[in-house]
């Protein structure tokens, strides 16, 4: 069954110059990239992304982590991969959340670490299931940024919205 999955290359992945390695590893899945962009992550976006963890003691630190405040790299690379069993294929390649427990040949096992303050710096985010993938993709991307029609969308005339255009 074709599925979409949100992948984030987190600020530690960017700081360690791992973008190429990670994309090469993900290309093993033979999935299609249907959206990609660099994002400067606001506090609201980080908190909404990790809202399922808001009661955890590490919530504040992981939102700072996603915003790049721990790495002096205030950006993440966001991608949507699409194809057969996309979530399982990408999660298998990513490895376990805890990089010490992840298969050593997985992306997190190869490149992740646990910081002295106990945060799992695991270089990549992969949506965990289909409802989460839909929620996350709609949070990070608008319909016009994705080159296939993943979810129902509609035309809307947005009045009084300010957007930046070329001068
Ligand atoms: P995953 O990213 O594997 O889907 P979660 O959504 O549970 O896992 O966690 C989000 C992120 O929070 C993880 O990728 C990791 O960076 C961090 N994290 C999760 N659990 C812990 C923990 N017990 N201690 C420290 N950091 C954690």
How are the SSEs ordered, and which strands pair?
Layout: E1 2-9, H1 11-15, H2 19-27, E2 32-39, H3 43-49, H4 59-67, E3 76-84, H5 86-94, H6 107-111, E4 113-114, E5 120-121, E6 124-126, H7 130-140
Antiparallel strand pairs: 1-3, 1-6, 2-3, 4-5
Bound molecules: adenosine-5'-diphosphate.
Can you walk through the features of this model?
The protein is an alpha+beta fold and 167 residues long. It has one domain (2-145): Nucleoside diphosphate kinase-like domain (Alpha-Beta Plaits), CATH 3.30.70. The protein is 33% helix and 19% strand. The protein contains 7 helices and 6 strands, in the order βααβααβααβββα. It has helices at 11-15, 19-27, 43-49, 59-67, 86-94, 107-111, 130-140; strands at residues 2-9, 32-39, 76-84, 113-114, 120-121, 124-126. A hairpin with a 5-residue loop joins β4 (113-114) and β5. The radius of gyration is 16 Å and the shape is globular. Bound molecules: adenosine-5'-diphosphate. Adenosine-5'-diphosphate binds next to loops.
Task: Spell out the key features of this protein.
globular, 19% strand, two-stranded antiparallel sheet, 6 strands, four-stranded antiparallel β-sheet, binds adenosine-5'-diphosphate, Alpha-Beta Plaits, 7 helices, alpha+beta, 33% helix, 167 residues
Short overview:
The chain is of the alpha+beta class. It has helices at 11-15, 19-27, 43-49, 59-67, 86-94, 107-111, 130-140; strands at residues 2-9, 32-39, 76-84, 113-114, 120-121, 124-126.
């Amino acid at each position: 069954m074709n599925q979409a999955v949100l992948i984030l290359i987190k600020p530690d992945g960017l700081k360690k110059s791992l973008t190429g390695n990670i994309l090469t590893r993900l290309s093993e899945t033979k999935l299609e990239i249907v959206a990609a962009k660099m994002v400067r992550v606001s506090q609201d976006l980080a908190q909404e992304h990790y809202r399922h963890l808001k009661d955890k003691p590490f919530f504040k630190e992981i939102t700072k982590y996603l915003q790049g405040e721990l790495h002096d790299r205030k950006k993440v690379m966001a991608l949507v991969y699409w194809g057969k069993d996309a979530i399982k294929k990408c999660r298998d390649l990513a490895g376990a959340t805890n990089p010490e427990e992840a298969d050593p040949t997985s992306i997190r096992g190869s490149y992740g670490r646990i910081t002295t303050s106990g945060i799992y710096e695991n270089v990549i985010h992969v949506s965990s299931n289909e409802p989460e993938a839909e929620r996350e993709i709609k949070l990070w991307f608008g319909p016009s940024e994705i080159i296939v029609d993943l979810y129902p969308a509609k035309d809307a005339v947005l009045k009084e919205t300010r957007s930046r255009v070329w001068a």
